[in-house]
Amino acid sequence: MVYGWMGSLLEVDLSSGEKKKRAVATDFYETYLGGKGMNARIYYDRIHPEVEPLSPDNLLIISTGVLTGTMVPSANRAIFSFKSPQNRLHMHSAMGGFWPVELKQTGHDSLIIKGQAAKPVYLWIHDDIIELRDAAHLWGKGTYETTQMIRKELNNDKLQVACIGPAGENLCYAASIESSVGASASRGGAGAVMGAKFLKAIAVYGTRDIRLARPHALFEKCEQILAGSGPFQRDMENFSYTMAVLNTLGTGMFGNLNETYPDLSPESLFKQDLDGIVLGFHEWLKKAEGSAACSNCGVKCRTALPLPGGGYAYLKCHLWNAFMVGAKIVDYSFVLECCRLSQDNGLDINAVSRCIAFAIDLYQQGIITKQDTGGMDLRWNDKEVVYSLIHDISLRRGFGRMLAEGVHAAASYICRGAENHAHHIKKLEYVPSAALLYLPYLGLTQAISDKVDISRNVSGPSIAWAGLTTEQRQALVDSPAWIYPKDYERYFLQNFSLDGSDHESGCRFAAYDDETYSIVDSIGLCAYWTVFLMNAPINSRALMAELVSHTTGLDISEDDLTLVGRRALNLVRAINVRSGLQRKDDSLSKIIHKTPPSPFLKPLDPVVFDKWLDRYYELKGWNQEGIPTSQTLQALGLEEVFPALKKMEGAHAHHTNHKN
Amino acid sequence: MRIIRTIKIDTDKCTGCRACELACAGFHAEPKYSTINPKRSRIRVQRDEQNKLFVPVKAGPYTEAECSGRNILVIKGKEYGECSFCRSACPARDLFKEPDSGLPLKCDMCGEPAPEEPLCVKWCLPGALTFHKRVEENGPVLPAEAEYADEVEEL
Questions:
Q1: Which of A110, A452, A551, A573 has the most C-beta neighbours closer than 10 Å?
Q2: Which among A421, A450, A473 is the end of a domain?
Q3: For residues A11 and A46, is the Cβ–Cβ distance under 8 A?
Q4: Tally of structural domains, chain A
Q5: What is the interface pTM, i.e. ipTM, of the complex?
């Protein structure tokens, strides 16, 4: 009997309608633990490099983690892995909320969707009842309405729905898979992969038990975590506020909002706008009516704000500023409306806001004209422009067709120098704040990230923070918040600089953190609970290892857990190298190396950046082309992966002069 | 005089995280804590995110027959049937029933010996659930000084 996991995997072939439930071998579980790692293995074995992302051969692999659905606070994640249509690389997108826990309770740890339905369908999983149901009446509907209609149709208001909106149906690359309001798998075009399969939604309702091996020890540990979450709770009490201020306005370092979008012309936001934003922000916080949580998490990270037309919008992190800065409109009701529209259409707010900012910028620079936009006058500070672009993009209508595949694709259709305004990392629009990318540490962590998502390097700002005194650093090292190994203390205690000379320290933390996030994404926890400096109680690998051991009954040490994270990370790297990823792709937009948007920042010296990348690769056990070495793979039990990578090494041999 | 133990539910504070469901399900598992399954929980959260309505409902007495409650409540523009907030395990729905056997479930305030506070209260980080003891002077004559879990007339 396995504990923690449910023991089986469900595979649904939409082409044939076949549904297969398979038992999963215990050693497979032990090697990967779930989530990102398990998905990466299935991806490596079954999605070959030549597979077209929007073809029936691409798989949508969804795995919960070993801790998902247990008592462990914030254990509510499922990872959606697939080949991204946007950059043809591996993408894993994490969904919180309630859908993942409900999926696990149907008795399935993982769900693999393959093939393509002949007509729109939705998948209904209720324990062992697995049905593909007609979705003709749902096609074209928004995500809110789809959820309600499915609940009504199946006469169960407690079932959970993960669905796509019009954006996913129209294969828009910014399309997300949306679940309960605000929970989604957004990055990399997950919604488009589902849309290409004619799969409108996955509805789940499960009544199975999740078994725990050492329940008393686990409960005791969880109660300790909750008791220790006092400081964390306090920090998070005004979480959205803190994050928004930090990200939008920040301290002296982020004195100018345009840094968030360095491609925008710098003169358009004035001081009074900034004041307006601060003022407006305080006004809007007064309107906030509490928050809505994901499963089993007391953190109030999603602030609920009433919409003018009824209902609520939920905002967290960068969503506060994405559209406001993107369209230069200082108005919070506008932000809410944009978020509602994006969520209802099933769009990744970060990606779509950047596509829109990019389009307006091009128009203002005269690179595109009314001829391109179909007569639309793209002005800054015009709400209607933004609303209609959101609709046009999600419907691939008119000018929206051009933007529907992201800024990189749009720039290559438009040409005329548009590519200098299209900022992306591996063809994915990066998540604000771009200002952070000018700092070598954060530039590096974003450039090498296999998710291009700031939530996977959130420890970063604190590490790169030059403002802390040595005494303050010492106090942190002595506090329970310190999560790094003993020998990292001295790297942290050195004063950091912003010029990149701290590269030894920075690279070490970058190499440690991305492994931690791989562990988190494999065991099913939320990344926020594991962030250094948030005083988060579940922030050390040692504690995570204890939680996994108590849940499964296996004795998993901190080192075992490290191997799991490293294995997932290297497997994803191997998949991407096999698909043609090269060192030159681990890079940032040219603007980061050229034009700083603020006197506080300096351009990131490409020589410095290369030095960081060299060291990072070295610490990862990768060669200077960013390819995992055979020794590295061998230590992880992945030696069979190496021949495919060796072949790629030869293929790129003539690109060795990467420094230009 | 009798002392009644009860849980006060502040819906304004509830964030709908359903930690109470998981804690309850674990506590009442056999053996204790060995499994987690919110479908076995004796407290369930009625959630409507679009209207930000989160109402924890704790299982009450079992009824053999459907009641005549057909009232419709309109809250923030959305219509709810009376059943949405009803505490009974009843033939009309499968809420508050063991998913395997269909037997009704009822909140026992975490049984005897009475814990300091019920587990759902302990696990409620936002503080929406609070534990209260209330002294009632009137009512049926019952052994003095005894503490009763919630529904006195059941005893």
A1: A551
A2: A421
A3: no
A4: 3
A5: 0.90
